[in-house]
Write a structure and sequence with these properties.
Length: about 200
């Protein structure tokens, strides 16, 4: 079973500058991919046997984007991929809700992220390291390390995913760590039994 631990982290100004530059590149990738999907839908919606662009095609286009605009290399490659996967999930959720609710469902399709939006940096299985009550994140913007303290004694088994995000309401940065938990110890009969007389009101252990 997987659970998610949400932990507030302390970010110094130099790290905050890095985070917002990385976030901006993810935000632009999300918006460009959304615009491409919208355009593709309008061009193909009336065609027989229509096939819409999806996550795989857009993820495969990332290397060319990096060649043309090297600043996208600042972001760890998996993070850009998961940004596109997030958009894909948003679309799948929208169409599923629309199908269940019909034309009167009132569902709103995915929208563009504004300039002041901090785009979640999602590290999926790589690009991060948890060690000695600290978490490290990979990036290539500059040499400022993205290292943040975790609560003392934190233990995470088989971490699947780590999100680094900003809470506008609390004006604070957080990481959410998806990890496994050990199942409760399975019951085993040890052959020892204890009986109680229901007429007795006090028992001695």
């Amino acid at each position: 079973m997987h659970i998610t631990a949400k932990i507030r982290i302390q970010v110094i100004p130099e790290q905050e500058d890095v985070l917002w530059h990385l976030s901006e590149k993810c935000r632009l990738v999300y918006n460009f991919a959304l615009a491409e999907r919208n355009r593709n839908y309008q061009e193909n919606k009336d065609r027989p046997g229509k096939q819409y662009i999806g996550y795989v095609q857009q993820a495969n286009a990332l290397p060319k984007l990096k060649e043309k605009y090297p600043e996208y290399k600042w972001v760890y490659s998996k993070v850009l991929q998961t940004t596109l996967k997030s958009l894909d999930d948003d679309f799948r959720s929208f169409f599923a809700l629309r199908q269940n609710g019909g034309d009167k469902g009132g569902q709103i399709p995915p929208g563009f992220k504004g300039k002041d939006h901090f785009c979640t940096l999602r590290y999926n299985q790589s690009g991060f390291k948890i060690e000695r009550d600290q978490i490290w994140f990979s990036h290539f913007y500059n040499t400022v390390p993205l290292i943040f303290a975790l609560p003392a004694g934190s233990q995470f088994i088989n971490v699947k995913q780590v999100d680094l995000f900003y809470d506008d309401i609390k004006s604070a940065y957080y990481v959410s760590i998806v990890h496994e938990v050990q199942p409760a110890q399975e019951y085993r009969d040890n052959g020892l039994y204890q009986a109680f007389d229901l007429g007795v009101t006090q028992h001695v252990g």
